[in-house]
Amino acid sequence: MSNDIVLVGAGCMGAALLPGLFKGFQKSRILVVDTSPLRREKVAAMGVDVASAIDNIDGGATVVLALPPNSFSGFASSTLALKGHAGLVISVMAGVRIATIKHALQICNVVRAIPNTPAETLKSMTVFCAATSVSLLCLEFAERVLSLFGEAIRVESENLMDPATAICGGGPAYISYFAECMRCFAVEQGFNDDESALIVAQVLCGTGSLLSVGDRRPMQLCRDVMTPGGTTARAVEVLDRNNFKEVVGDALLKATIHSRSLGCMVEEAENERSHR
Ligand SMILES: NC(=O)c1ccc[n+]([C@@H]2O[C@H](COP(=O)([O-])OP(=O)(O)OC[C@H]3O[C@@H](n4cnc5c(N)ncnc54)[C@H](OP(=O)(O)O)[C@@H]3O)[C@@H](O)[C@H]2O)c1
Prior knowledge:
Order of helices and strands: EHEHEEHEHEEHEHHHHHH
Main location: cytoplasm
Strand content: 5-15%
Structural class: alpha/beta
Organism: Pseudomonas rubra
CATH architecture of the domain at 5-157: 3-Layer(aba) Sandwich
Catalytic activity: L-proline + NADP(+) = (S)-1-pyrroline-5-carboxylate + NADPH + 2 H(+); L-proline + NAD(+) = (S)-1-pyrroline-5-carboxylate + NADH + 2 H(+)
Radius of gyration: 21 Å
Domain Pyrroline-5-carboxylate reductase dimerisation: 158-261
CATH class of the domain at 5-157: Alpha Beta
CATH topology of the domain at 5-157: Rossmann fold
Number of strands: 8
Helix content: 40-55%
Shape: globular
Bound molecules: NADP nicotinamide-adenine-dinucleotide phosphate
Domain Pyrroline-5-carboxylate reductase catalytic N-terminal: 5-95
């Protein structure tokens, strides 16, 4: 195989990375590897080469691992072509630690990243962290690749990757959950389905655009809308009374802890495999 990019896993996250990859690489230089025939069929329809496994790989190819964390150990043990790979390996798997990937594949150039599904519209928020063994060249290249999907920031401490998984990776789900609550209310109040969906989408989109310009923090935007004693203040009082902030904090903490334990589970599976 002679490819610049090999994407392993074209599920919800992997497929969302494709528009960004198409922006940065020729389609003819991308290979998508997925065990699901249905996913392969979908990707092949976009004019991209597909395969069910990596048989051999160019030393300089960049590999993006977007397969489920619990499939990683099996993938690593069965993908001999990737052992000792010299090129960059970017993992977007939740929880799986850099050391585990380095050990399983016997490689140095590993970057752990957490993008999110808005990558599909080139609006991902990606947080990434690099192994200390990553060459400067690979690091710069990784930043360029991850920036194809939207915004990308690098953190030094890998400990931040679990909260990043909770906040960035899962973020679109919580926001959509909140949006669904607002949409249901709109429908209950008499807006039709289309109107309700448009109202909520535009409110989120407009608020997102305000949050992304200048240096206004969310609470300032909240106060700008919340005239004291006015209608919005009544709603926010209810959220405060019901400890909304604590509820959100608890939810994010649960997701963070799960990301950490996923990392431990994959490491254990990998240790067991290598001692067999
Ligand atoms: N979804 C998100 O928003 C999000 C955000 C950040 C990070 N992530 C991470 O991204 C990864 C993928 O998540 P996802 O939501 O896209 O999962 P998904 O929708 O289940 O897609 C995973 C894909 O990988 C395939 N696969 C499984 N084992 C494989 C192997 N050994 N070789 C090649 N392909 C394989 C699966 O095929 P089968 O159906 O045949 O198993 C499936 O098509 C996970 O590690 C997740 O933690 C996800």
